[in-house]
Every structure is written in structure tokens, then in C-alpha cells.
Design a protein that fits this description.
This protein is an alpha+beta fold. It has one helix at 59-83, and strands at 16-21, 27-32, 38-39, 46-47, 51-53. It has one domain. A three-stranded antiparallel sheet has the order 2-1-5, with helices on one face. A two-stranded antiparallel ribbon has the order 3-4. A hairpin with a 6-residue loop joins strand 3 and strand 4 (46-47).
């Protein structure tokens, strides 16, 4: 028997669902045939997907990636706030 296992050999027409989150807080997802960057619909900033799903990812995996990118962006924003000069007088 020479039956091919279709799950073993992915065709190159895989549609990826790319999930993005911009530093401005905008979140969106888009479907592409590759994991490419996309521009934020709110501020037009270029973002790379924080996770790309070829259809095999569990919701939990996407959700945990979402939580971690949110935490990372939050940390970045806090750093920017810390750097800004504070007038103590
Ligand atoms: Zn944005």
C-alpha cells in the first residue's frame, strides 16, 4: 500500500492566520499564504505577527501568545513612561 498521508505532506498553499498586535493597542488578524508583516489598521505601523496559525494551533496556544505579547507591549510602554522626565519640584 502506498497511500499518502495528507497530514504528513503539507501542500504549499497553506493559509496562515496571522495574529497581530500593535504597540498602539490595535489587535487584528489576517489570512495570508505566508507569515508576513502587516500594517496596523489604526496607525499604519508595520507589525510582524506574534503568532501564525496554519490551522493546527490550539486556541489556548494562540491565547497564551496573545497574553504574552500584551505583557511585552505593556512592559515596553511602562519603560517609555519611566524614561520620561519627572519634575519632582
Ligand atoms: Zn497601531
Amino acid at each position: 500500500m502506498t497511500t499518502m498521508d495528507p497530514t504528513n505532506d503539507m501542500p504549499d498553499c497553506t493559509v496562515w492566520t496571522n495574529y497581530y498586535r500593535c504597540a498602539c493597542g490595535e489587535e487584528w488578524d489576517d489570512q495570508h499564504d505566508c507569515c508576513c508583516n502587516d500594517h496596523c489598521p489604526a496607525c499604519n505601523c508595520e507589525n510582524e505577527p506574534y503568532i501564525s496559525d496554519d490551522g493546527s494551533l490550539a486556541i489556548e496556544t494562540i491565547e497564551s501568545a496573545r497574553v504574552s505579547i500584551a505583557a511585552r507591549l505593556e512592559a515596553t510602554i511602562n519603560t517609555i513612561v519611566d524614561v520620561s522626565p519627572v519634575t519632582a519640584e
